[in-house]
Amino acid sequence: MSEDRTFDLVIAANRLPVDRETHDDGSVTWRRSPGGLVTAMESVMRGREGAWIGWSGNPGDAPEPFHQDDMYLHPVPLTEREVGDYYEGFSNGSLWPLYHDVIVPATFKRRWRAAYETVNRRFAEAAATITATGGTVWVQDYQLQEMPAMLRELRPDVRIGWFNHIPFPPVELFMQLPRREDLLLGLLGADFLGFQRKPDADNFLRACRQLLDVSVEGDEVRLPDGRIARAAAVPISIDTSALAELATTPQVQERAAEIRRQLGDPEHLLLGVDRLDYTKGIRHRLKAMGELYAEGALDPRTVKLIQVATPSRERLAAYQQIRGEVERTVGQINGDYSPIGATAVTYLHRSFPREEMAAMFVAADVMLVTPLRDGMNLVAKEYVACHGDDGAMVLSEFTGAALELEQAHLCNPHDIARLKDTIIRAIESPIADRERRMRTMRRQVMTNDVQRWAELFLAALAAAPERPAQ
Ligand code: GDG
């Protein structure tokens, strides 16, 4: 496809930031999908010629490029089979478990790997077509790790950045990946590689040193052709002030009060909000809660848990399995301990509008965030932005957020006995202690919001291979 328009800043992500809506009369419109990435991009694209390339979410021919909310959206087509092989297969059946400590086994298929390469090349070609001379391309996440080098080959004039939203695994695990060198070389096509935490950047640098013929010094990788790529931590965040503002609106405040009333005005309301994914530690959290109810440490009449589990990757067997386990456990807890008409665990397997999510964060006395591994975990930051000073949070050490929100009640979710103690400690923590912790955490997320994240990333990319002056 020939394209006559070019852009200074191009974002490449697996998905476009919009969802297709087909109306009764057959007409099609696009609705902006919620998410911090879109918000962050809006702020950095203001005043620049910006474009976004990604899959529309529907297999088959791609729609023509179009404008939406001041952004030029350039759809990349995926066939039905590519959705199965590149997206569900290699991205979510091989890379996702491998990069999350193989909580479930990673599956490798050569057909999946081949599709991943084909799709990454398609993205690189699309970016090459629409990026202005000397422009910047910012590639997002684990689905597009080969794209940077492919794009560099087509467009050596372009500045290329890549950001990893998920963890980067220790080399001992990464080594399991078939054709692992190709992936590292793909990434090294970028000038700057951003990670959620320093340990993730270090894992990447160690993998390069150990598996490639390159020299690694500090946070820089020098390639045989003399080029240098830099890898460092740039932790992602949320649109803090917008969310905090939403949480204080009368509608959200009233809805929060209503949620508590609907649950019978519990003494303590606990909340979990996750995509239904085996990385999120939902089972471990439920196990701890079930035991606390069983032992009488928590009274199911006065201590309630809401667990939101947003449907995710439902065609994959590992996701069907975790859903079954979670639903069985919720059923057991409620069957064993719930009083009539007032279930102990309210389980919600669906998505909610932003306002309803904010109301839940406002309503909850204690937030439970217990992933077994998580790149960052935005939910932790969202709770801090929404809830008043009297909140408390139990937060897994295995999240990126734990490095920034040190005042949370940190936990190892594998250690159920200690997890139970930590939940009790959070529930019983005195108000002065809660206020001190919440205020420090709120300052953290207010200062380090998603707009700042995008600015820091783009400054590091513009300055690479040097560290930007600050
Ligand atoms: C990946 C990494 C990293 C959830 N349910 C609803 C809803 N959500 C929103 C949350 C939050 C987002 O989805 C989930 O973000 P997380 O960070 O918690 O987790 P992942 O989806 O696994 O994200 C992660 C992130 O990328 C960013 O880099 O932090 O580590 O795994 O914003 O609030 N939003 C609405 N309705 C729902 O039902 N509106």
UniProtKB/TrEMBL annotation:
Gene Ontology BP annotations: trehalose biosynthetic process
Alphabetized InterPro entries for the sequence: Glyco_trans_20
Highest taxon in the source lineage: Bacteria
MF term (GO), any: alpha,alpha-trehalose-phosphate synthase (UDP-forming) activity
Protein family (similarity comment): Belongs to the glycosyltransferase 20 family.
Listed name of the protein: Trehalose 6-phosphate synthase
Biological source species: Rudaeicoccus suwonensis
